[in-house]
Amino acid sequence: MPGKSTVTVHTDRETHPSRAVAPPIYQTAAFSAQDATTFAAGAVEPRGQDFYTRFGNPNHAQAAAVVAELEGTEAAMVTASGMAAITTAVLALVSSGDHVVGQKSTYGGTASVLLNLLPRLGVSTTLVDQRDPEAFEEALTPKTRMILVETPSNPLLQITDLRAVADLARAHGVLTLADNTFATPLNQRPVDFGIDVVWHSATKYLNGHSDVSAGVLAGPAEILDRIWDTSLLTGATLGPVDAWLLLRGIRTLPLRVPRHNDNGLALAEALSGHPAVTRVHYPGLATHPQHKLAVDQMNGFGGVLSVEFTGGYEMADAFLSRLRYPRRSASLGGVESLAVHPASMWAGMLSDDQITEAVPAGLVRLAAGTEDTADLVADALAAADAVHH
Ligand SMILES: *Cc1c(COP(=O)(O)O)cnc(C)c1O
C-alpha cells in the first residue's frame, strides 16, 4: 500500500486512463453511447463516468478514487458542496418516522438539517453533548436509524469518541456518518474506528485553495449506491472543472496538512497564555479537556482553533479587525489564514435561540493557513495586545 503522498499523485490514473499527464477536463453535460445496450447500462450504473454528468463524469470519478483511497473506503462520490453531501445522504438513508442522533456542537448547516429540515419531513432528532459517549446511548430509541458525528467539531473543537459511538451504533444496527472536514484523512480516518460513512466539505482542506465549493462522501459501495440514487434527484452535481480543481488541490494535501497542524498548534499555544484570552479551544493543547482522546484517534490536530476573549463580542470583533494576515471570512482550510465570528455566520442557518445554545457570542474562530508560523503568531499576538486594556 503506497503512502499518502503517492496516493494523492497517482491513484486516479487507472480510473480514467489517458496519455495526458494532467487529467483532461470533461466539460460535457452528456456522453454518447454506441448502442442501445450500452446506453441502457449507463443509465443504471452507480457513479458511472460516461452517461450524463449528473450521473457521473470522469473528473468526478478521479477525485472520488483518491478520496476513497485516503479514507480507506470501498467507494466515494463527489457533490456540489459539503451541504449537498450531507443533505443528499440523509434524504437517501432516513424516512419519515425514523429518528436521527446528532451533536450539539456541529457545523451550523448540519445543525439546521437536524433541527429544521428533518423534523419538517417527519424525522425526529436528538442533539447530544458529544463529549459524553453515554449521551449517544441514552439518545437511542427503537426508531434511531443514524448517528451524525463531527470531530473535532466546528467551532468548539470538541472531540467525539469515534470508536465508542461506532461500537454502540453497530450493536443497535444504526448507521454512523462522520464529518471529517476539520481533521482531513491525514489527521484522522473515521472508518478505522468503525464509522460507516465519512463526508467532507471539500471546499475546505481537501481542495485547500478557497477556489472551489465541493463535497465528498466515502464509504461502502452499497451505501454510496443508495446515496447516488438520491443525488440524481437532488441534482447535487459537481461541475467537471470544479472536480478537476478539487483533484488538483488534493494532490498537495499531504504537504499542506502538516503546516496547518504546526500553525494551528503554535497559534493555540501563543494565545492561550495571553491576558486578553479566557480560553483557547484546540485539541492539540495538553489543557484541552479531551486531549488524550484526541491523541488516541488523531495524528495531528489541524489548523482550526477558537478563542474566547475576556471582553466578549466587542473585544473579539476588535481582535478580528486588528489581524493583518487572517481575513474576516466564513471559510477555512485554504492556504491563506481566515478568521470569523461564528455566531454571526451561524445566523444564516439557525434561529437566535439555536445559536445561543451552540456558539458563545464572544468566540473567534481562527483557521491557520500555510503561511510562515512566526508571522502568524506575531500577528495574532500583536492583535491581542492591541485589544487588551
Ligand atoms: C464548511 C463546512 C461544512 C459545509 O460545507 P460546504 O462545502 O460549505 O457546503 C460542513 N461541515 C463543516 C465542518 C464545515 O466546516
| Oligomeric state | single chain
What structural category characterises the helix and strand content? alpha/beta
CATH topology of the largest domain: Aspartate Aminotransferase, domain 2
The major sheet is characterized as: 7 strands, mixed
* Net shape: globular
How much helical structure, as a percent, in the residues?
40-55%
Task: Tell me the number of structural domains.
Answer: 2
Low-confidence stretches: none
Strand content: 5-15%
- CATH class group of the largest domain: Alpha Beta
CATH superfamily of the largest domain: Type I PLP-dependent aspartate aminotransferase-like (Major domain)
pLDDT average, as an integer? 96
Radius of gyration: 21 Å
Spatial strand sequence of the major β-sheet: 1-7-6-5-4-2-3
CATH architecture of the largest domain: 3-Layer(aba) Sandwich
Q: How many helices does DSSP assign?
A: 16
Q: Note the run of SSEs as H and E.
A: HHHEHEHEHEHEHEEHHHEHEHEEHHEH
Distance linking N and C termini: 55 Å
| Strand runs, count | 12
Family: Belongs to the trans-sulfuration enzymes family.
Pfam families: Cys_Met_Meta_PP
Keywords: Aminotransferase, Ligase, Pyridoxal phosphate, Transferase
InterPro entries: Cys/Met-Metab_PyrdxlP-dep_enz, Cys_met_metab_PP, PyrdxlP-dep_Trfase, PyrdxlP-dep_Trfase_major, PyrdxlP-dep_Trfase_small
